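Need the bound structure for 2-keto-D-gluconic acid, inputs here:
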Amino acid sequence: MTPAKPRILVTRRLPGPVQARLAEAYAADLNDADVPLDRATLVAAMRSYDALVPTITDRIDADLLTLPGRTVRMIANFGAGTDHIDLGAAREAGIIVSNTPGALTETTAELAILLILMAMRRAGEGERELRAGRWTGWRPTHLLGHGLAGKTLGLIGFGRIAQATARRARALGMEVQYVSRTPAGREVEAALGARRARSLEALAAWSDVVSLHVPGGPETHHLIDRKFLAQMRPHAILINTARGSVVNEAALAEALDSGVIAGAGLDVFEQEPAVHPALLGCERAVLLPHLGSATWEARIAMGMQAADNLDAHFSGRDVHDRVS
Ligand code: 8YV
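Answer from helper R.:
Posting the output first, comments after.
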C-alpha cells in the first residue's frame, strides 16, 4: 500500500503550474475562489492538515500555533517576508516555517525602480491629469520632475532586494549609499559602487531618494517617523517596497503636504488593503497595491520554492529556506 499523501492547505489561489505541482504531490486543498480565509477556517485547518502554504494575508499568531490538537507541523510560506507569522511561537511549538527568499528579488527591485522613476518624473500625476481630461497641452514648465543621473540613492537595509535595486540604480547613473546592521563585504560594496553611511541621520541628509528594504516587525516599526522625515532633504522622495509598518503613514502624509519632502512611492501599507486617507489625497504620492513580486516569473518561482521546501520536509531532508 502506498503511504497516504500529506494533507496540505494552500490558502490563496496560486499560479496554475504551482497548483498543478502541489495537487500532484500532495492531498492539496486549493482556494480557487481566492477568498481570504477567516479565523475559524484557519483554526480548523491547524487541526486537520499536515502543512499550510499561507501568504501575507493570513495572520498566523501564537494562539493559532499553540492550539490544542494541532496537526500542522510545517508552514511553507508563499513569500519572503514572514512578519505575519509569529516565528518565536512556531519555534517553541516545534513547527517548521520556511519562506521564499531569492525568488522575488529581481522583480521587487524592478518595482522599486519603477516607483523611483514614477515619483521623480511625476508619472502618476500626469496620468491622472490626462485621464481626467485636465491636460491642456504641452508647455515648457508642465509637471517638471527630476532626473536620476548624479542623484544619490540611500538604501535602508542592504539585503538581496536592496542590492538588486542598487545595481539598477547604478545603471541609471545614481550614486548609492546604505545603512545596515552589518556592513556588506568590500567586494559587494565595490561591485555595486555602494558606500555605508555613518548613520540613519547621515543617510537621510545625503540622499535624494531613500528606499526601504528592511523586514517588518517590532524592530522596524515606524522607523520612518516625523524625525527621520525632517532629516530628509526637501526635494527628496521616500520609496517603500518593504513593509507598511516601517513608515508612520500619518507623519509621511503630513511631510508630503507641508513640503518637508517632495514625494513618495509606496507599494505597501500599514493596514493593507486600507490606505491612510491622508495619503490618498497626496498628489505627490505614487500608490500601488502591493505589486512588488507581481510577475508570472516571480510568483511561479515563489510557489516552486515553497513546494521545494514542502518536499524537503516530507522526505526528511533539511528545509533549505527554514526560518524557524
Ligand atoms: C508577496 C512580499 O507577494 O514576499 C513578500 O514578502 O511582500 C510580497 O511580494 C507576499 O508576501 C506573498 O505572501
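Comments: The domain at 105-287 is CATH 3.40.50.720 (Rossmann fold). The pocket of 2-keto-D-gluconic acid is lined by residues 55-56, 78-81, 104, 292-293 (CB under 6 Å).
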